[in-house]
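Subject: for your reference before the review

Hello V.,

The reviewers asked for a structural picture of the protein, and I figured it would be easier to keep everything in one thread rather than splitting it across files. Below is the amino acid sequence we used in the manuscript, unchanged from the supplementary table.
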Amino acid sequence: MDTSHTPMSIGVVARRVGVAIDTIRYYEREGLLPEPQRRASGYRSYDDGVVRQLRFIRRAKDLGFTLEEIRDLLALSADRKRGVKAVKQRAQDRLAAIDERIAELTRVRNGLEQLIEACPGHGSPEQCPILRALAEPEERA
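And here is what came back from the structure prediction:
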Protein backbone atom coordinates (compact mmCIF):
# COMPACT_ATOMS: atom_id res chain seq x y z
CA MET A 1 0.00 0.00 0.00
CA ASP A 2 1.52 3.33 -1.04
CA THR A 3 1.00 5.97 1.65
CA SER A 4 3.24 8.64 0.15
CA HIS A 5 0.28 10.83 -0.77
CA THR A 6 -2.18 9.50 1.77
CA PRO A 7 -2.69 11.89 4.67
CA MET A 8 -1.84 10.32 8.02
CA SER A 9 -3.00 11.03 11.54
CA ILE A 10 -0.53 11.91 14.25
CA GLY A 11 -0.92 8.42 15.72
CA VAL A 12 -0.02 6.74 12.43
CA VAL A 13 3.05 8.98 12.06
CA ALA A 14 4.12 8.27 15.64
CA ARG A 15 3.90 4.51 15.07
CA ARG A 16 5.76 4.66 11.74
CA VAL A 17 8.65 6.59 13.26
CA GLY A 18 8.61 5.03 16.72
CA VAL A 19 8.10 8.21 18.73
CA ALA A 20 5.39 9.37 21.11
CA ILE A 21 2.58 11.62 19.92
CA ASP A 22 3.66 14.20 22.50
CA THR A 23 7.14 14.19 20.93
CA ILE A 24 5.67 15.17 17.58
CA ARG A 25 3.68 17.97 19.18
CA TYR A 26 6.79 19.13 21.05
CA TYR A 27 8.85 19.24 17.83
CA GLU A 28 6.09 21.26 16.20
CA ARG A 29 6.11 23.77 19.07
CA GLU A 30 9.91 23.99 18.87
CA GLY A 31 9.78 24.68 15.13
CA LEU A 32 11.57 21.47 14.13
CA LEU A 33 8.50 20.33 12.22
CA PRO A 34 6.21 22.49 10.12
CA GLU A 35 2.74 23.30 11.36
CA PRO A 36 0.59 20.43 10.09
CA GLN A 37 -2.35 20.73 7.76
CA ARG A 38 -5.68 20.44 9.54
CA ARG A 39 -8.61 18.36 8.41
CA ALA A 40 -12.11 19.81 8.48
CA SER A 41 -12.50 18.08 11.85
CA GLY A 42 -9.50 20.03 13.20
CA TYR A 43 -7.29 16.95 13.46
CA ARG A 44 -3.70 17.18 12.28
CA SER A 45 -2.90 15.66 8.90
CA TYR A 46 0.62 14.61 7.88
CA ASP A 47 2.43 13.32 4.80
CA ASP A 48 5.60 11.28 4.27
CA GLY A 49 7.74 14.42 4.39
CA VAL A 50 7.07 14.72 8.10
CA VAL A 51 7.91 11.04 8.57
CA ARG A 52 11.29 11.61 6.86
CA GLN A 53 11.91 14.73 8.93
CA LEU A 54 11.06 12.92 12.18
CA ARG A 55 13.43 10.09 11.29
CA PHE A 56 16.13 12.68 10.59
CA ILE A 57 15.52 14.29 14.00
CA ARG A 58 15.51 10.96 15.82
CA ARG A 59 18.73 9.77 14.16
CA ALA A 60 20.45 13.10 14.84
CA LYS A 61 19.42 12.86 18.50
CA ASP A 62 20.82 9.31 18.59
CA LEU A 63 24.15 10.77 17.40
CA GLY A 64 24.11 13.25 20.28
CA PHE A 65 23.03 16.41 18.50
CA THR A 66 21.03 18.88 20.57
CA LEU A 67 17.67 20.18 19.34
CA GLU A 68 19.29 23.51 18.45
CA GLU A 69 21.97 21.70 16.44
CA ILE A 70 19.28 19.60 14.75
CA ARG A 71 17.39 22.77 13.82
CA ASP A 72 20.61 24.00 12.22
CA LEU A 73 21.17 20.68 10.41
CA LEU A 74 17.64 20.75 9.05
CA ALA A 75 18.19 24.25 7.68
CA LEU A 76 21.55 23.26 6.20
CA SER A 77 20.06 20.19 4.54
CA ALA A 78 18.16 22.55 2.23
CA ASP A 79 21.17 24.79 1.57
CA ARG A 80 22.52 23.80 -1.85
CA LYS A 81 25.59 26.07 -1.70
CA ARG A 82 27.11 25.51 1.73
CA GLY A 83 24.95 22.77 3.20
CA VAL A 84 27.18 19.71 2.91
CA LYS A 85 30.35 21.50 4.00
CA ALA A 86 28.56 23.06 6.98
CA VAL A 87 26.92 19.76 7.94
CA LYS A 88 30.31 18.05 7.88
CA GLN A 89 31.70 20.79 10.14
CA ARG A 90 28.79 20.35 12.59
CA ALA A 91 29.42 16.58 12.64
CA GLN A 92 33.14 17.17 13.28
CA ASP A 93 32.27 19.54 16.12
CA ARG A 94 29.90 16.94 17.60
CA LEU A 95 32.62 14.27 17.34
CA ALA A 96 35.11 16.55 19.10
CA ALA A 97 32.60 17.15 21.91
CA ILE A 98 32.03 13.40 22.23
CA ASP A 99 35.79 12.78 22.36
CA GLU A 100 36.09 15.39 25.14
CA ARG A 101 33.29 13.73 27.06
CA ILE A 102 34.90 10.30 26.64
CA ALA A 103 38.22 11.68 27.96
CA GLU A 104 36.41 13.23 30.93
CA LEU A 105 34.55 9.99 31.67
CA THR A 106 37.81 8.04 31.39
CA ARG A 107 39.42 10.34 33.98
CA VAL A 108 36.40 9.89 36.27
CA ARG A 109 36.47 6.12 35.76
CA ASN A 110 40.19 5.89 36.51
CA GLY A 111 39.81 8.00 39.66
CA LEU A 112 36.90 5.90 40.88
CA GLU A 113 38.79 2.70 40.10
CA GLN A 114 41.75 3.90 42.20
CA LEU A 115 39.46 4.75 45.10
CA ILE A 116 37.80 1.33 44.91
CA GLU A 117 41.18 -0.43 44.86
CA ALA A 118 42.33 1.60 47.89
CA CYS A 119 39.20 0.81 49.91
CA PRO A 120 39.45 -2.34 52.05
CA GLY A 121 35.66 -2.66 52.16
CA HIS A 122 35.60 -2.86 55.97
CA GLY A 123 36.49 -0.76 59.00
CA SER A 124 35.31 2.62 60.14
CA PRO A 125 33.76 5.09 57.69
CA GLU A 126 36.45 7.65 58.61
CA GLN A 127 39.08 5.31 57.16
CA CYS A 128 37.26 4.73 53.86
CA PRO A 129 39.19 6.44 51.03
CA ILE A 130 36.04 6.75 48.95
CA LEU A 131 34.15 8.64 51.68
CA ARG A 132 37.23 10.78 52.45
CA ALA A 133 37.62 11.73 48.79
CA LEU A 134 33.94 12.69 48.57
CA ALA A 135 34.15 14.83 51.75
CA GLU A 136 37.46 16.60 51.01
CA PRO A 137 37.39 20.19 49.87
CA GLU A 138 38.16 20.58 46.17
CA GLU A 139 41.71 21.48 45.22
CA ARG A 140 42.06 24.84 43.50
CA ALA A 141 44.46 25.10 40.60
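For the response letter, the relevant points are probably these. The helical segments are 10-17, 21-29, 48-62, 67-77, 83-118, 129-135. The chain has six helices and two strands.

Happy to draft the paragraph if you're swamped.

O.
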